[in-house]
User: What shape does this take?
Amino acid sequence: MSTRQTKTRFAPSPTGEIHLGNLRTALFNALLARKEGGCFLLRIEDTDRERSREEWVQALLDDLRWLGLDWQEGPEVGGPHGPYRQSQRGDIYARYYDALEFGGLGYPCFCSDAELALARKRQRAAGQAPRYPGTCAALPPDEAQRRLQAGEAASLRFRVPRGETVAFDDLVRGPQRFASDDIGDFVIRRSDGSPAFFFSNALDDALMGVSHVLRGEDHLANTPRQLLLLRALGLDAPRYGHLSLLVGADGSPLSKRNGSLSARELREAGYLPEAVLNYLARLGHSCGPEEWLDLDGLAACFSLQRLGRSPARFDAAQLQRWQKQSVERLDAASFAAWLNASRTGALLRERVPEAQRDAFLACIRDNVVLPAEALEWAGRLFGEPPAPGAGEKAALRDAGPAFFARAAESAGEDDLRTFAKRLGEATGRRGKALYLPLRIALTGTAHGPELARVWSLLGPQRRRERLQAAARAAGEAHP
Ligand code: GLU
Assistant: This one.
């Protein structure tokens, strides 16, 4: 039995912002390592020099740290298998290219893009799956050498063995079999000298001692290629598990159009990392307990057996639910700090008088899931309340102008209960029939924080003005 340490990895390409799908991949790898007391490694796959950008590298390090998905090996923390950026591993790759070429398992290919495109077109027309037709596979070595020396551009292809079945047990999808004859010889080094994904990705996993790879199912068909390559290099392959696709509410792959958010957008909107983690850990993975868990708790219930094979559907309402729970768990100081640090923090400080800040926060505490709602409440309470909608107006009319005129007379009463008692006696209204029109008059809406807190935050003058305005609205003729 293998005593190999569990080592997982996340290997993003820094070509843009990191979105929910990739965050989930990172999370599952991090949870597996954490559960097994192993190592979570981060590797930056920046081989695409055109599209990779340093700012995306920094952003993704920040995003992972924001979520608490710390890596034990990788950029900034180092480790025994560095460098952890593929753009810095050229010397290492060169040795393995040499080994493959020396053993006849890699050969230079001089086919141009146009030639390759034509070959694919012919194959498709003949009803065949497009694959490399092997044009350069049998070039005599001295001819290849001569063309290389003459400066002709060449990529390096891996010679795929013929007539084999590549079988592996996918950690998520179970036994898989691929015929090597269906795999054309593939490029492992591009003609510009940069490593191709199949090569650097598989080689680095092996050299870095990665034991388990969880990645998107779009990589499933890459795995037989990578297994053949590692076998040719005499290296141990990791075990691969391919995660089901993340789809939007409409069933199509999750994208900006159907609700995907980047880590930055989530953070800027004020989502708490714990909310994102609790949500993602249950997306395509049945986590067991439905209660809020911290990273250790999520790791404890993580299991490869619980990963689903069918597409996981993004559900914004579920994310909100975890966000609500995460906000509820904040103590008063953290709640204040969270709002303060949010995008709306400055505006909130502007809108809420300093002397009333604590009372305001205590008031809205249970009515805020995202900072934008805190700002909305600040507006409702300290600015002009939004004009009541049709339903609210109807409720005002139902209570009638006299009710509000009477209420406005006692608006100076600081204790809401005393005020309400008197108003009830004078108008014959009680319970909801009393409180609902009052709430609408004071806040413009039928739902919201505890009315006693709203009452005291508004103060006598605003209370009076709003009740008088309600009296006018209640007297307006029906539209
Ligand atoms: N850099 C690859 C990607 O972002 C990694 C794929 C893998 O996890 O093996 O898709």
